[in-house]
Amino acid sequence: MKKKILIVDDETQIVRLLSSRLQINNYETISAYDGYQCVQTAKEEKPDLILLDIKMPMGGGIKAFETLRNNTSTEMIPVIFITAFPSIDVKKQVIDIGANGFISKPFDSEELLKKIHSILGL
Q1: How far is the C-alpha of 113 from the C-alpha of 110, rounded, in Å?
Q2: Radius of gyration from C-alpha coordinates of the chain
Q3: Which of 40, 13, 44, 15 is nearest to 29 (CA)?
Q4: Tens-digit pLDDT profile for residues 23-76
Q5: Cβ neighbours of residue 1 under 8 Å, at least 6 residues apart?
Q6: Second label for 55, Cα 20 to 30 Å away, from 31, 43, 68, 97?
Q7: What pLDDT is attached to residue 18?
Q8: What CATH number did the domain enclosing 85 receive?
């Protein structure tokens, strides 16, 4: 059975790029474009992993992450943050709040796939 990954980013071209790359590597993908959609989609779809942008409208990635962690149906879903603002402070913040990983945009597809495989135990 394919692992399901929720891709959350307000930039549709990033979502398309990630979806294509992951589907080629035998993952099922679903998409959301803001923090609110992220939480709703995660509750409905129960993905195996979430790739989550930090800066988005309607509740950014940090707020969405905190909401996911405070809900019993989504609290255990691993999350990798993806951001175009890769400061040391931001990276430390997301790791401190319990994220499973952090990738900077532009990202290396192979590095991202390795991190996903590692988190999903593949």
Answers
A1: 5
A2: 13
A3: 15
A4: 999 999 999 999 999 999 999 999 999 999 988 877 788 899 999 999 999 999
A5: none
A6: 43
A7: 95
A8: 3.40.50.2300
State how far the alpha carbon of 118 is from the alpha carbons of 45, 65, 88, 121, in Å. 22, 20, 23, 5
pTM above 0.85, yes or no: yes
Residue 18's domain comprises 4-120
Would the pLDDT of 88 be above 70?
no
Q: How many domains, in total, are found in the chain?
A: 1
Instruction: Please give the Cα distance from 113 to 105 (Å, whole number).
Output: 14
Mean pLDDT of the chain: 90
